[in-house]
Amino acid sequence: MNPFIKNTMRSALALLGAVGCLSLAHGEGKLTLGAASWAQYGQIVKSLDTAEQKDLDGKGMIGTGAQFAINYQANEKLQVNAGLGVGAGHNIAARNIQGYYAPYGVGPYVANANMKYSFWDEESAKLNVQVGLFPYDYAPDAQNLGLYLLRGPVYPGLLTSGFETKYVLPVANTLGLALHHQSGMFEHDLLFTFDGDWFPYWDISPTYVAHVKLGSAFRLGAGVNLYHWIPMDSKLTSKKTPEVMYIDTTAHDTTYISFKGTKLMGDFSFDPKALMGGVEALGAEDLKIYGEVAVLGLDGDKAHKALYGPISQRMPMMIGFNLPAFHLLDRLNVEFEMYKAPWVDDPSIYNHTSGPQVTPIPKISALDTNTTKDNLKWSVYAAKVLAGHVKISAQVASDHFRPGIFQGYGDNNPPLNNVPFFSPSEFYWTGKIAYFF
């Protein structure tokens, strides 16, 4: 079993044990249990990714899973949360091996493992700190695209999205510490988070996010992420070796490219119903308009401009709109994204050197062949909760979904993580039914 999975499971079990001890020792505490289970199916409708004789059109994607959570409110200030889950599914085969499908896989994960302490908690004034593995979402209106401040690396600026990813669901997506403060219509967060998704692993990224509500119709926000600014091993984050070297042959100058960088973000949300005095025929989420823009990397020297383009090519932008569903659905939205990054949407550009060396410098072919064709992404999402415990959701999208492409039996490489959609006309659909309490 992967060491990270082992360690996170041990952490969650330790917290479960702590919760059990607390519940026995303090009878005044409140213990609550929760659980969820789901099944989903989808298909890649169209993909022009035909390298290595791949044929992805019409290929199905099956997944299922379950999780449980235990929450212990020790007193009015201290809360302990823990939970475990297991997911199952398969990757799509790159070549015709057993009908283009990979073996079914099962993997455990930690749904929650944290403690939250509230210094004070009133309707318009809050101050709390959360430590451990916990969910964090600074833009709850976004259902797929966006959330650029905390998803993906800086160099190269790869994006992450897909159907109901962990970043938009109430499951753990952040490991570290978060200090939250609210005063009236203003709220802000200071985070110190470990990166378990992108190399160099376990570097700490200090992040600050602030939002202000202007009446009941507008919400404006901004944030900065000092990505990998506190390294676990500076020799990995900012090393000086050939695979991170950019050589300017005209000036005979050498620049070493670091994995660390700075992200900036601005977002907004506008609910016109608040200006209408409320419309009973419309649902709570209907008519909302929201968006986000970010800058991935502020370095402006000649080397960074040559590799990652000017700032205008490092700025993903998204806009979303909740269509009127008239209570038939809880949410029906469309989202669009524009991102002019001059490389293919494939993390393999992160590790293209010989051997196990990882580099933030994209391979030359990625820079040469993909400047405009995948700039636009889109998504349509719908969801409805029935009887308070059953959720039905579906999505059609051409986004940054990475289904995992199996490379064949006997191949020691992990499944390919590239996005199989090169233009807005290529897309997939997927649906899910879930039960929770």
Structure at a glance:
The protein is mainly beta. The chain has four helices and 20 strands.
Topology, element by element:
Layout: H1 3-25, E1 30-46, E2 60-73, E3 78-89, E4 92-93, E5 105-121, E6 125-134, E7 174-183, E8 186-194, E9 204-214, E10 218-227, H2 234-237, E11 245-248, E12 253-256, E13 261-270, E14 289-296, H3 302-308, E15 317-322, E16 331-338, H4 364-369, E17 376-386, E18 390-398, E19 405-406, E20 427-436
Parallel strand pairs: 4-19
Antiparallel strand pairs: 1-2, 1-20, 2-3, 3-5, 5-6, 6-7, 7-8, 8-9, 9-10, 10-13, 11-12, 13-14, 14-15, 15-16, 16-17, 17-18, 18-20
Please supply descriptive tags for the structure shown above.
disordered N terminus, 16-stranded antiparallel barrel, mainly beta, single chain, two-stranded parallel sheet, 437 residues, globular
Write structural notes for this entry:
The protein is mainly beta and 437 residues long. It has a domain of 267 residues. Strands 1-2-3-5-6-7-8-9-10-13-14-15-16-17-18-20 form a 16-stranded antiparallel β-barrel. Strands 4-19 form a two-stranded parallel ribbon. A two-stranded antiparallel ribbon has the order 11-12. A hairpin with a 4-residue loop joins strand 2 and strand 3.
What share of residues are in beta strands?
A: 35-45%
Radius of gyration: 22 Å
Structural class: mainly beta
Kindly report the spatial arrangement of strands forming the biggest sheet: 1-2-3-5-6-7-8-9-10-13-14-15-16-17-18-20
Number of DSSP strand runs: 20
How would a textbook summarize the main sheet? 16 strands, antiparallel, barrel
Order of helices and strands: HEEEEEEEEEEHEEEEHEEHEEEE
